[in-house]
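Example record

The entry below shows one chain as it appears in the dataset: sequence first, then structure tokens.
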Amino acid sequence: MKLNKIISALLTAAVACSSALTFSIPVSAAPGISTSKTYTWEYTAVKLKPQNSSDKIYYTTDGKDPTTKSKLYTKALGFRSATVLKAAEFDKNGNLVGKIRTIDVKRKCPTPKFLVSDRLDGTAKVEITDLEPGMTIHFTTNGKDPTEKSTVLDGAYLVVKKDKTIKAIAVKDGWITSDVAVISPLDQITEDSYSDYVKQALKLTNAERKKAGLPEVKLSQKLCDAAYIRAGELMSNYDNGHTRTNGTRWTTALADQGYIHRIAAENYLRIPNSGVDPERAMELWMSSEIHRENILREGVEDVGFGFVQDGIYCYWIQLFGKLM
């Protein structure tokens, strides 16, 4: 009986004291800093946002944990290379809020861009432009999205049937793979196509040669491909003239296309705000003694034409040659 009274008294005392006891209940960590990333051609932008608007964010890029003596975040951060970013949120008293956030910042490959032209044989030439050094292009023509195991672009361009749909991605070690780029050459080639202008330029060239009693020249696909490349180089730096952007002579463009010449000549010009106008190009070349000499050069058998536009000028290249 006495024992029961003692136990009862102890239980009553425990209940009476329960209001003074504190229990620690595990809770999940605070959400902390939120992040967002934007990828551009030149850099990766990282935006940080604190959990509480009155708090401040400090960050490091040297692998060390940030403190209130680290760099203060005030605006979006731009990174041109892979970086490990550490960020921490602190309240007005300098206390850490939530956890230190570690962000693996990577660059993202830009989505491939295409430059399309039709060829004399009815196929399409598709060039990939604006590639970052070290990037490779993987592509498909069967309608499936490309992966890093897909065919690698070997060279500066593809030659495909016009009804093919090309899908391509850009890949680079340590970078995020680009979005998939999709193009159908038929959608890019206008009614007044590359081959139509080339044939018109050929007709005008041979008309001048006929007047001079010279044999006609025939179109060479290799010279047309070389001329197309040279026209693009002119657009990049017109002042280079007959020197290529890589510092070599213009004749190396022929060799790059497998045209090994015995005789070769090049005419170039740019015409402001003219669109693609073969007649105007021939008129200007024939009014220049040195260019006229190339058009009326004896011994040449082949010719190729290339042109590109940048919205201000149309850049023309005319190549003559005779194979070894």
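Notes for this example: The chain is about 25% helix and 30% strand. The two ends are 125 Å apart (CA to CA).
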